[in-house]
Amino acid sequence: MSQMTPAAPLEVGQTWRRLHPLSPIVRFGRVLIGVIVVAVPSIAEQPAFHRHDDGLPISVIIYAGLLLLGGLGGFISWLVTRWRIAEGNLQIETGFIRRQSVRIPLARIQAVDVISPLSGRFLGLAEVRVVSAGRGAEHGRLAYLTAAQAPVVRARLLALAHGLEVGTPEPPSLPLLHVQNGLLLPALLMRSQVLAPILIAIAAVAAIAAAPLVGAGALGSAVTVLVISGLGVARAFNEDFDFAISEAGDGVRLDRGLLQRRHETIPYGRIQAVRVVEPFFWRVFGWARLDVDVARQSVSREADRDAQQVARTLIPVATREQALWLLARVMPDAHPNPPPDAGPPPRARLKAPLSFHFLAAWFGQRYMYARTGRVQKSTIIVPLLKVQSVRLKSGPLQRALHVATVDVDTAGRRWQASARCRDEAEALEMVRHVSERARLSRRVPPPRPATPAPVPAAG
Amino acid sequence: MSAVVTGQIIGVGELKRLSPRFWLARQTQLALFWGPVFIASVVVALIVNVKTADVLPVVVALIACTAWLVERGRYRSWGYAERDDDLIVTRGLLFRHVSVVPYGRMQFIDVTAGPIDRAFGLATVQLHTAAAATDARIPGLIRVDADALRDRLALVGEAKATGL
Questions:
Q1: Model pTM score
Q2: Segment 61-80 of chain B within 8 Å of chain A by CB
């Protein structure tokens, strides 16, 4: 496999390509480290009578054999894996004993990511990951290509997915926002998962004086929870470190990560829903987070689960003004502030006592909005253009209270706009109007704004 | 809120109901399960020489009657309407559901029939969209009607298909 300059076009056609020869090392690097961690102490503690005649411990031979076998397996898997872009498909063939041939229609590509894990960064390798939609659609991973080649392949896939010329370079991107790491860390620590156990721990220390047994027990569990949420913070910090969002003609680009750098694309047309999240303590500072939901297949395999876990964060933390400005970039004319009559009727308090204060749902000409949350305020915005179905449901208690819940489904995997506990008649009206407006908006596709307005200053 | 009111507010007037044959099929299913259970309970009551065992068949009969009432309520709650651009399905006795699925969003349509359904010449039509939560299912259609509905839906679905 020859090294390629970023500008050199890849031939499209019948040429099959292999992945980078060092791929197995990066792919199985973690396993390798694990084996070494297990092997070295066990070899060091080997008693003398287990030694073979020639003096080498048997375990060394076993581990060396395992490594050799693993290396051979990795080499074979590299040898039999090839890919190409042809006939409107990304085609990947892999597997030695069980041959597998994957065809991903370019028209169904939802997003293309370039991911550089830590070990890959040392070796100058990167993975291209294709997210496609539809039932039974395959998840395409090209792991690994050279760091120079990966962006070229990505540009090519995106160009073909948008139906452009083969050689179209990736459109120039315009930086939108950059998250200061100095803001990210306090914001992550300010989430209630971290602060609540700290408060409990403080209360427990105070309680130890009065009731030592109860206090110590509470302190123990608070510390456990704290350790778990601390790991969560560390992970989130690692993932969203040095977060930058920029805008290209076809969608937004996200660059983030401390150890593992990710370069993600989210085409505008593929966004199924956006969520504005405002955790309890963030509201004091006026911070907010934006998440997006894109269409994707169900999650079954390890690699897919990994992709699922990493939330599609549009911005991990920003001032509310910045978040709303960014929201207006991806969803023009969306206004996530509820009108005065958006709340459910007071009798819904019986059904949803803890989240009643945040419950709200309303819709405009192009978007459906639903706000929920007990402690953390979260507003989901669904473009009516993306609505797959509208459902009303009403359980026994809800029926006794004459309220009903309206769910607006999209092809996204993670959330649906759920208007909980609306008045019964109003819920039916909502079903009628939302499905009617969804029908109208499918007829007339929405326009896109041409130039971005200036970023509001951080306040 | 009755299905009639639902239909009026959604603006479809009268909803189409399921065929009475479906109710027959459901009753057969109930009888096939509760009949043997009842007989077994009578046998147990006769064999076991305990006073309270006599109550057992009565309890079983009461449960069976409740199941019959619930099934009847469920049967009556089903309704569907084909509008110009979408299909509406209502169902549920305790948990009422109303689903609206635009034809343009349909990805594929299933027609299934279990052994009892087949004996009564019935079939179930199920719509699938790209959203996993969509649950538009119409059971207990007469086989011919089910096939006709499937063909009609496939036709309008193709004409109005929209991308994700």
A1: 0.80
A2: none
